[in-house]
């Protein structure tokens, strides 16, 4: 087989890149190790920056997003027994939209297949070769060996994917920080208890109230990084959420828990994002703690640049944008890294947290809710830089 761009991974990054290339008249094949049902149902991120919404609309993936997405013009910060709204749209002119990552994936798969796109699920043993000049992707499909020849490979297969491993030793440098806590997240059949997200700093630990639809809530608790999920019954989760989020005159709506899991918290950047004819995007090369809602948005920002760079190469023969892909991505990646670290450090309870550190956190939160310029800085980063 032959295509122009082989894309490894059918998450938001790989699928949106395939759609962008299709619109530019560039052929691609998407290879995914999981089956379609798994990819379309895995619960991940749910907050889209303004730029991500604009990108999805521009590449024909905005119809259901516009019908079912939930635009938000502010977020709430809760601390010291009070809740404060940060009006992000009033401060920046931009907003966020709550729309689950799995919904973006469903929309992109449907669009690619409707256009005759080549998206292959449940492949295995993916191997890359010839990356310096003539890339080839070998894989197993339906028990049979297959070989795909291409001009470029886009590794959009996440941190545990194989693409990054085919870069020679000594080329990549990884910067990493692991946090001493994790998030326990639930998806619940319960109407949202608030119109906008609540980020809660509590003496018992961080909590977050979010949503996925008018009838589905997404909620998180800070827990220990080695916390056994088996020790958290549904009733214990709800009880802990109630205690951390308690406010006079406000109630947290409870319901049937549909999904429950624990997510480790870490920051990671591997650079450069390219080697020869292999280009890496999304979680394959950078991970952020979810506090800043940046993971999926960074992945989409990467493939927007990569799609533009590939289109430029095919139409003009110039490698300029391909050669600058890594540096063009990394300025935004590191800005998001800092913002996510800052939000995480300000809102979570650290082990052996002494009173001095807690006073610093509360000072930051009070300043955020009383200084327009400080609130504007948070808002600019939260809704996404242009």
UniProtKB/TrEMBL annotation:
This protein's record includes keyword Flavoprotein: yes
Keyword Flavoprotein tagged: yes
Keywords: FAD, Flavoprotein
FAD-binding domain mapped to chain residues: 2-339
Signal peptide residues on this chain, from the entry's feature table: none
Pfam families registered for this protein in UniProt: FAD_binding_3
InterPro entries on file: FAD-bd, FAD/NAD-bd_sf, RIFMO-like
Domain of life: Bacteria
Listed PANTHER family: P-HYDROXYBENZOATE HYDROXYLASE (PTHR43004:SF3), TRK SYSTEM POTASSIUM UPTAKE PROTEIN (PTHR43004)
Protein name (Swiss-Prot/TrEMBL): 4-hydroxybenzoate 3-monooxygenase
């Amino acid at each position: 087989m032959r295509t122009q761009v082989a894309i490894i991974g059918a998450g938001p990054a790989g699928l949106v890149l395939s759609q962008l290339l299709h619109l530019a008249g560039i052929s691609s094949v998407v290879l995914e190790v999981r089956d379609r049902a798994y990819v379309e149902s895995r619960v991940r991120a749910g907050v889209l920056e303004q730029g991500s919404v604009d990108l999805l609309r521009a590449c024909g993936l905005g119809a259901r997003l516009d019908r079912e997405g939930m635009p938000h013009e502010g977020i709430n910060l809760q601390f010291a027994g009070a809740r404060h709204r940060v009006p992000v749209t009033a401060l920046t002119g931009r907003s966020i939209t709550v729309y689950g990552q799995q919904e973006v994936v469903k929309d992109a798969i449907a669009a690619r297949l409707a256009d005759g796109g080549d998206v292959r699920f449940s492949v295995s043993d993916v191997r890359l070769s010839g990356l310096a000049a003539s890339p080839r992707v070998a894989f197993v499909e339906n028990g049979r060996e297959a070989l795909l020849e291409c001009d470029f490979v886009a590794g959009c297969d996440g941190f545990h994917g194989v693409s990054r491993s085919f870069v020679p030793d000594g080329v990549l440098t990884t910067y990493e920080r692991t946090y001493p806590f994790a998030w326990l997240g639930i998806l619940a059949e319960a109407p949202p208890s608030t119109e906008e997200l609540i980020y809660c700093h509590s003496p018992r630990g961080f909590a977050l109230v979010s949503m996925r639809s008018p009838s589905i809530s997404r909620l998180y608790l800070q827990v220990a990084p080695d916390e056994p999920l088996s020790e958290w019954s549904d009733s214990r989760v709800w009880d802990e959420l109630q205690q951390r989020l308690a406010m006079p005159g406000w109630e947290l709506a409870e319901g049937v828990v549909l999904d429950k899991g624990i997510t480790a918290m870490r920051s990671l950047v591997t650079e450069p994002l390219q080697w020869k004819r292999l280009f890496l995007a999304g979680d394959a090369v950078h991970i952020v703690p979810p506090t800043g809602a940046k993971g999926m948005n960074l992945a989409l920002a990467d493939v927007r640049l990569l799609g533009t760079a590939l289109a430029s190469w095919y139409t003009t023969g110039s490698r300029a944008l391909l050669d600058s892909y890594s540096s063009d991505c990394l300025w935004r990646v590191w800005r998001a890294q800092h913002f996510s670290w800052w939000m995480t450090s300000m809102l979570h309870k650290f082990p052996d947290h002494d009173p001095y550190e807690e006073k610093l956190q509360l000072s930051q939160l009070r300043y955020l809710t009383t200084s327009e310029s400080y609130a504007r800085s948070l808002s600019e980063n939260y809704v996404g830089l242009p």
